[in-house]
Design goal:
The chain is an alpha+beta fold. The chain folds into 3 domains: 65 residues, no CATH class; 135 residues, no CATH class; 121 residues, no CATH class. Helix content is 15%, strand content 36%. The chain is built from 5 helices and 23 strands. It has a 7-stranded antiparallel β-sheet, covered by helices on one side. A 5-stranded mixed β-sheet has the order 10-11-12-13-15. Strands 8, 9, 14 and 16 form a 4-stranded mixed β-sheet that branches. The two termini are 55 Å apart.
Amino acid sequence: MICKNTPAKISDNNAYTYPYAIDDNGNPVFINEITKENKSQTQYHCYGCGAELFPVLGEVREHHFRHEKGSVCDPNKYLHEYAKAAIKKRFEENDSFIVSYHAKQVCKNVSNCVFYDKYHWRECDCEGLYSVDLKKIYDTCTSEKGYYQLLPDGRKKYIADLFLTDSQNDKRQPVCIEVWVTHECTDDKKQNGGRIIEIKINDEKDAVRDLVECDDEERPIRFFNFANPVSVKPGKWFRHIKSLSGLYGKVLAVDDTLCAEGLHYDPKAEKEVILSSNNLAPIYQEVLYAIKSHEDGMKYPTPFLCEYGNIIKNQEKYQLKCRYLGYNRHCPCGNYKFSTRKRDEVLKQCDNVVCWGKNDDP
């Protein structure tokens, strides 16, 4: 595990001081892991220049690694190499490597969907953060890998700080991870270098943050050439309500149907309505069914649409209540009086719900 700590800095005597080093076995070492008892068990080396580093474990200053006095080392080189090693280690030693980027998710059935052009529901086409576990796609992370891209005018070679590939499928498009300390990727590389994740590194902590696309001015994480639409399975559910002949008269039947199945009507139904949302409380679904029936000239009395009825909430459940008959799903009495006011109240609450009857065109 790569630890978090204060960034590398330059001490008063102009010797570079770092919180991380590499031991003789190539493993990262955090200065807080070093004690006066174990500091001589191995040598420590700089990520940037490879020179030997010395643990400084004084009582006054913060503990750190320091180059030999007079040594010349570029702290930006150190930070660049450290970040690459930390990200590579995270990829190789964890079961998942999740990145999140902004993408447009489109239902795979839009080309032959009867709803897409007219309604454009959230489930059909949306933009937002799309997360993917790259460890499920790639199994190899290579540092400083050269690779070629085929361009209209021939091949061009690029170098990736980190290069993710699938050893079982060499045709799978790789992913480049670019560490930005002083220089970001060139425009040419961004446009033609394939899929690139560019991470701005200001200090060691940036190498262990979540890889989520952001436009933060100081610490951006950018994704290039990832914006291809993501094909998702149809996900819009409908509520199909119909009246059928039952043992004791007319009964309501309710089915769920997926948008991929289209609108399928039941030839046995006397009346049926399909609602574009199944998130409504069942009682309101019935009221919408009653409204649609009334519009089509079929009397389907329900207490909420009657001047003498209402919907009340009883023990977290909605119930229809008739002033004359008490709780009742149907109201087959001579006092039923359709209320346009209540109809309008329901339609206002459900203005994003689309209703279709058997003869309606979606």
